[in-house]
Amino acid sequence: MNLRPTQSAIFSQIQRDLAFNLRKLVRAQEQVASGKRIQRPSDDPIGSSKAMSLQRQISASDRYLGAVADGRVLLDTGAGILQEGTGLLADARAILVQGLNGTLNAQDRTLLADEVRLIRDRLLDIANSKSSSQFLFGGTHLESNPFQESTISGKSKVTYVGNDQVKSLQIGQSSTLAVTVAGDQIFARDERSGTSFTTSTGIQSGVSANEGTGFETLTLRHDATVATLSGGLSLVNGGVQDSILGTHTLTVDAVAGTVRLGSGPALAIPSPGSANVADFVIADEHGAQLHLDFSGFTGGSFSDSVVGAGSISIDGTNFVALSFAETDLQLVHAQSGSVLHVDTTQVHSAGSELVTFQGAVNVFDVLEGIAGDLSNTDGIALEDALERLGVWMGELDRNSANVLSGATQLGSRSAGATATAERLADSQTWMQATLSGVEDADYADVVLQMTRAEQTLQLTQATSVRLMQNSLLEFLR
Length: 477
Prior knowledge:
Layout: H1 7-34, H2 45-99, H3 106-127, E1 130-131, E2 134-135, E3 147-152, E4 155-160, E5 168-170, E6 176-178, H4 183-187, E7 194-197, E8 204-205, E9 215-227, E10 234-235, E11 246-253, E12 258-261, E13 267-268, E14 280-283, E15 289-293, E16 302-313, E17 320-321, E18 329-332, E19 339-343, E20 351-358, H5 363-375, H6 382-439, H7 443-476
Antiparallel strand pairs: 1-2, 3-4, 5-6, 7-20, 8-19, 9-16, 9-20, 10-15, 11-12, 11-16, 12-13, 14-15, 16-17, 18-19
Helix pairs in contact: 1-7, 2-3, 2-6, 3-5, 5-6
């Protein structure tokens, strides 16, 4: 039995062949136009899965590279600013060394103090620097300047109000980059090692531990002089100009014609016509002064005690009477919060003492202290001012080292970020090459396939026409 294809069967076959060859041509044209071998997941399910995984990794790498770039901006900005800070502190040290020269006059020292204050102001600006909306040295503090200035007991002091948190950026699946350093670690690091007192008045640290940061100024005040004098000798104006505190021995040797306070130098008794006979100043071995009026002196030798009554204050306002027997007198500064315990048993004269909480004085307060002692705002003797400047030298060097350490730390992180960026870029290049190998088309091959598909489609179309024409003629016959 002969089987003859029907008209419908031939038409269906032609339609399938045309559709098949057209799909091949369209796919080849898509590959040529896009350069991609995989146009849809069905083209290569395994390759599509691998390509999507690589694309996710490349996208993540782009984010990490962006984070590294942003981080390097913050790190380089911070390191550059701190480098300027180290230069400023080097200038301040040079000024301090110059100020330790005892031959400078008051005007020269005031000019040096003005230079130090300019350095302090610029350094404060550096500490409060921002990059966009981010404080570089405030931790994660955003509300206000992390270093704020205030006046306490007439002295300008700076307080850190930022926090110790560090801003970090994600630069890898399990890697972060710290892009800030808390400002207190750079400009106000607490490395306390004790409490130091200058020595002009004889005050010493007490038994109990002291509490506080920065520095305080103790004021020891002479309130009265109590003395039993003989031979017509008297105190000038009742002793209001004296600086002695505690008990001292006054010795008048009429035979030798000398007068002596404590173990101080023996001075010649002024003659009746001397210019200083009515206000003769005598000092003990520590420099504590007593003003004596020899204008009514009738002669005679004697040795007796002279007592200087006084009081002490940590804030310059609230004074506590001295008994000169306290070994652990507590003084509290209500504004700064400092608590000092002092030994008053060796106090010998009135004056102003610098108390520093060693290792806990921020760089701004150090510079303020240097400027204050160069300009002698407390009105102390030159030798006492030089002693204070020597104390500031150690604190300045410590703070300078911390600022330099901060600059080095940020610079090191920036170098690490650069190396990370290079690794990410290399990894991304490898992933992009791998992705290209998975999804990119072989251009020469797909052009050949497109040409073949086009030719095949054209041949199919021609053959189909002839088949349809032959069938129609046969039908008409």
